[in-house]
Amino acid sequence: MKTKKLCVPISLTAALLGLITCAVSCAKKNSEPPKPLPAPPESLPTNAVPAPETNAPTGTNTAAVEAPAPLTNAPVAAAPVITNPPPAETTAKAPETISAVETNVPGHATVVEMPAAAPTAPTNFYPAVVTTNVPADNTGLSALAPIVPAGNTNFFFRFRVGYDHINHGDNNDSYWAGAKFYAYGDGLRQQAGKNGWLIPDADLEIASTDIAKPDNNPHPGSDAGLRLRADFTWPWLHWTTLMFERTNSVCPFAQPLTFALGPTVNVGFDHLYDEDAYRFARYAGVRLTFNRSGFIEYTAGDTEGLDGTRQQIITELPFYQSRDGEVRYYFRGLWNHGESYRPDILEAGVFLEMPFSTLVRPDKWRDLVPCCSEE
């Protein structure tokens, strides 16, 4: 009985010691700090050579294939040096020009360079006049023809004769004989650039014909005298029409028509042969021209000796010209109206205009007869 009582306490004591030992070991493990995680493996370079395929064929008698070393942004190897370089050129090589055919190759990009300055409108808006039988020295060029050499200004002399009828409270038939000088400012406008609008076209005419007498004359009406007029016109607005274009026609309007509109100023004087006085005249207004060969203008101003402010309409319309454009026939009309009860001045006539050289060249005399000019 004593033996059984001692065995039970010993076994209980051994079991308690085992439990205590386990508890102490677990407490030690929980009290230890956590160990840090291992560092992640280094990433491969972006330009590294991929690993050889695993399914590559292997052979028993082949040597082991060495894997290429990874590239780390290594520079591209330089091109091989040319052992036979071409000889250096001693003179500067002219720039190569690309023909129009080469620029049309598909896929070829053509670079178009814009000019530094904005393009400007041409200063000569008048269509060219086709002339034939023109002398080599250009002395026979028509007054209507545009400038041919750049930077030059046209100057022309023309002889004008014709029949004129004037009514200033009377009816007088008179002759007209004079000379007219044309000056076109195309060349000067080209040189002036943006200030070219300030340069006018000009003409100067002096003629012997019947003119109106002063209103205070004891015998009003008209009488023979001398008239001088200088006209300045600024052709600012232009437009062209092909409506009346015909081939090989002697009509001045059967061709491309270029109209020009702008202000005009004309000044001059009237002088009666039986008086000593010179009566100054000055008018200003607007003029519409047709290829420079004809015009219609409206002006206002005054003439000394005529009562009050005057309104005036003048027109010159050509109806025939020679093939070379040198000889012209045209109609001229004038209406001058005052503010008072004094009669208006009315003029109408048919005139011939030609170069002075036509008079001394027999081969050009046929141009004076309408419809008989040379082809």
Describe this structure in words.
The protein is mainly β and 375 residues long. The chain has a domain at 154-368: Lipocalin, CATH 2.40.128. It is 11% helix and 34% strand. It is built from 3 helices and 11 strands; from the N terminus they run H-H-E-E-H-E-E-E-E-E-E-E-E-E. It has helices at residues 2-31, 100-103, 186-192, and strands spanning 154-167, 172-184, 201-212, 222-233, 237-241, 257-272, 279-290, 294-303, 310-321, 328-337, 345-354. A 10-stranded antiparallel beta barrel has the order 1-2-3-4-6-7-8-9-10-11. A hairpin with a 3-residue loop joins strand 7 (279-290) and strand 8. Mean pLDDT is 74; it is low at 54-65 and 128-151.
Describe the protein's topology.
Elements: H1 2-31, H2 100-103, E1 154-167, E2 172-184, H3 186-192, E3 201-212, E4 222-233, E5 237-241, E6 257-272, E7 279-290, E8 294-303, E9 310-321, E10 328-337, E11 345-354
Antiparallel strand pairs: 1-2, 1-11, 2-3, 3-4, 4-6, 5-6, 6-7, 7-8, 8-9, 9-10, 10-11
Brief summary of the model shown:
The protein is mainly beta and 375 residues long. The chain has helices spanning 2-31, 100-103, 186-192, and strands at 154-167, 172-184, 201-212, 222-233, 237-241, 257-272, 279-290, 294-303, 310-321, 328-337, 345-354. It has a domain at 154-368: Lipocalin (Beta Barrel), CATH 2.40.128.
